[in-house]
Amino acid sequence: MFGQPPASDETPETNLQWRNLLVVGAVVCVCGLGLALIYRFSPGVFLKGGFSLTTTLGKAGKRPAGASQNHFYLAPLIMNGRDVDTSAFMRLTLTLELERPDVADDVQPRLAAIENIVIVTAASQDSTVLRSVEGKARLRDELTGKINALLPNGGVRAVYFADFLIR
Question: pTM of the full predicted structure?
Fold first, then answer.
């Protein structure tokens, strides 16, 4: 009770310290659980690699790979940036607009070479240049020319960035 002296090794100060320690531990656990729930059920931008403009079909990650009408969808590509002093990386998801549907038959067997062209070309660019609209347009035009040079009869009208992230 209140009027009784504390036990031999317990003082009011140690009881208060233990109580404060328990309160701090409970607050940390509740905050950690809250952040875990937010991370798990967030729509994809909170704590998941930054913000990016994604114009995929359906949910992110459910984008069809391969040809569809006059478009060819490439899988997302992740590469290191040219900036040596930073740990920057890029994630690109491309859509090739084809002049004719039969161009997809030329693209499919050369997919590894096309992905290599995209990685080497994009990784050789300075990230500060690629952050600008002009830098992205220049990269898009350069990729269109290089991919057309790889195909026997050309056939890629344009390259579009469905996802472009520099982090």
Answer: 0.60
The whole-angstrom separation of Cα 129 and Cα 131 is 5
Query: Mapping DSSP to helix (H, G, I), strand (E, B) and coil, where does residue 27 land?
Result: helix
What's the pLDDT band for 23 if we cut at 50, 70, 90? confident
Domain that holds residue 108: 66-166
Q: Is residue 52 part of a domain?
A: no
d(CA 155, CA 119): 21
pLDDT of 6 reads 55
Rounded to whole angstroms, the Cα distance separating 45 from 28 reads 24
- Is residue 34 domain-shared with residue 99, that is, in the same domain? no
- Residues pairing with 89 in the sheet: 80
Domain count, the chain: 2
